[in-house]
Each structure stands twice: as structure tokens, then as C-alpha cells.
């Protein structure tokens, strides 16, 4: 009795294969196993037991029923097109899955069995519904779009998808992937202004499902008008151009996608966008993008520039007196490598400029006394080398006290005068001697065991007078 209750439960739950059977059709063997009798006798009319009439399909259908064991059951729609076929099992049951979708709308499914000798028997017919949907995900309704906007959404897997006008004219065509996703890109740019399109898919030949129409506004692509494409710019360029009036505009790095600057477009459609963070020297690719609702972009054409910066030493100043180990400061391209060379091409120090292009370095060896030239040389990311302007500095010498000859002896007073002369020179002897017409160079002259301090301008007349005598 327990086996009968179990089979009764199975029968109540199943509609696909066991529909129409009764408990009286079951036979219990002596061992307790349940055997299935034939569902249809030879020559019996085949019957569709699943789906029931009025069933709605949203995908490929599966049909089941009964027929003469050993025959082949074939399912056709109202147009005579084959849906599927399968051999009937030894107990007279069959189940098959369609090889394609049913046409959208109402379909009449009919089963026909064919015996091994080719005798057909037409069976029952059920009427079913096929309903499919196609959805557009992007762009959202009411947004601003470009003239070459791509459309994406979901449909049935592996079907032809189009974006069509109200008049049914296709603007683009594609095929959905195995998961039903699609992206449709128009081959001809749209005209600027209002645009209404609807997604459509071809389920089977002659059966097309059209989704809800969606409206947008097509705007002109933004454009950079200055600097000129292919030109040279500094590391803080200002981009100007045209875009949709009163929209938000961004200048975007072509490789990283980073926004270099953003601005508000004026009512006339013009924009001015200054870059506030220094750009590295080298090649630069950017494109303008109008920012629409939801943060989407309407992108303009890519433009290419060359960022060039000339390195410069700003401290010490040109012509100044510096210590033997000076600190050299200046500007260069952001993050570039900078080397400072002397007049012989020897590298005095190297450093990497910071994000603002500033650099500071100290020579690894002390400079000798005398005049030196300091030349900044910059190397960019791609190895491009730019030489700046050299400056000239002077390292003062160290005063050395000379012993002098033994005869005549240098008196203590004379040594004192030399030291005083050096002191005067250090604090600006040029100003003290200006009234005498001397150039500022103090020359000690020994006369009768003493020292006289003479400006260089006074020295020549003295020698001339002695020559005449």
C-alpha cells in the first residue's frame, strides 16, 4: 500500500510525462517494484499532455505526451514548421525540446507519430502563447547622447537585435550573445536634436518583437580648438573649445582616463579649461568630454600634443659669488630627471624634480676657486633630453699670507696695512675708491720699506711719470 501512495504522489506532481495516467494503470510485482504499462496501444492516437492549452512560453518550448511505442513523434506549429521530433519510448511516452523559439504570439502545436513502416497518425493539438521581451539599458531615457551613441541591453540569446526609428527604419544591427546581452553601434551619425528609437529582435523569421520606444537629445561632440592638434604646449596648458551650451566639460587624459581639468561651458557654447597640475614632459593625448546626466560622457575627438619644458636654474643668480659647495635650485618638467653640469660637461649633481617641477641639488665635490658655469640638463620619461641656459658663478679664493723676501724686511706696520687693504676690499672697496677714479682693484706697492695702496687707475700715470724722468 505504501508503494501505491508513493506513485499516487508522483502522479499528482507531474504533468509533463505522466499526465493522464490513473492508479489503475499501475501494476505492482511480487518483489514490490513498480512497472509502467504501455501508455498507448499500437495504432493509438498520439496525445500532447504537456503543455496544457493556454500555456505561455518565454523561451524554447518543451513538449511531452503519449504515442505508439517505437514510433517517432513530431511536433509542428500552425504553419507546419517543425518544432522538434523524438522516438516514442517502449512505454509510449515522449518528451522533446524545440530546436528554435516559437513565433511571438499564439501557436497551435500538433503531434504526429510515424511508425517504422512510414504510417503517420495525426494526434491532438494544443494552443499556446509565446511572449518575449527586449530591454534597453543604456543610455537612459531623456539623457544627452552623442551622434555615434552605442546602445546596450538584454534580449533573447543569439537573436538579431536592431535599434529602429518610429517608422521601423533600423539604425544599427547586432546579435545578442549567449546570455542575451547586446551592444548596437550605429554606422551613420545621428543629427543633432531630438531622437526616438526602440529596440527590436527577430525571434524567428517573420516574427519580430519591438520594445518600448525611448527618447533622447543628440548633442554635438565637444571640440578642442586651442592649442592646435599636434602642437607644442607647456606643462600647464589652457584648453579652449566648443561644447553643448551650459554643460559641464572635462579634458581627459587619453591613456589613463584621468580628468586633467573641468569647466562650465558658457551659453555661447565656448569653454576655457586651464590645467592646474603640471604635466610630465613628453607626448600627451587628451580628448574633451561633455558630462551628461548620471556622469556619462559625450566624447570628442582625440588630440595629441608635445609637452615641453626648458630647465632653469633660479638660485644662485647668474654672476653671483657662491661658496665652494653651493645649493643649486631651479625648475624643470614635473618628475623629470635633472643633472647640473659644469663647463667641461662634468656632472656636478643629479636630482628628480617634484610634482611641481622644482628641484634642488648640491655638488658632490667642492668647486675650485674661480669662475664656473652651471648648466641644467633635463631628461624626460621617454628619454628626451632638454638643455637649459647656463649661468656663471664665482667661487672666491682663500687669502694666503706671503712671507716675502728677507731684505728688505716687511715691517709689522706693512703687514697691518695689507690686512686692512684686504678688509676694505671685502666690504666693497669699489665704493670707497670711486672718488679717485680707480676701478676698485687695490694694489700694494712697496716704497722705502713701507706699502702704499693704489687704485689700478692711478698706477699707470705713476709709471709714466717715472719713465719721463
TrEMBL record:
Give GO terms for biological process.
Answer: carbohydrate metabolic process
Q: Which residues form the signal peptide?
A: 1-40
Question: Mind listing the UniProt keywords for this protein, alphabetically?
Answer: Membrane, Signal, Transmembrane, Transmembrane helix
UniProt entry tagged with the keyword Membrane: yes
Q: Which domain of life is it from?
A: Bacteria
Q: Which residues cross the membrane?
A: 441-463
Q: Which residues form a coiled coil?
A: none
Q: Supply the Gene3D superfamilies for this chain.
A: Immunoglobulins
Q: Does the keyword Transmembrane helix apply?
A: yes
Q: What InterPro entries does the entry give?
A: Ig-like_fold
- UniProt name for this protein: Gram-positive cocci surface proteins LPxTG domain-containing protein
Species whose genome carries this gene? Arthrobacter alpinus
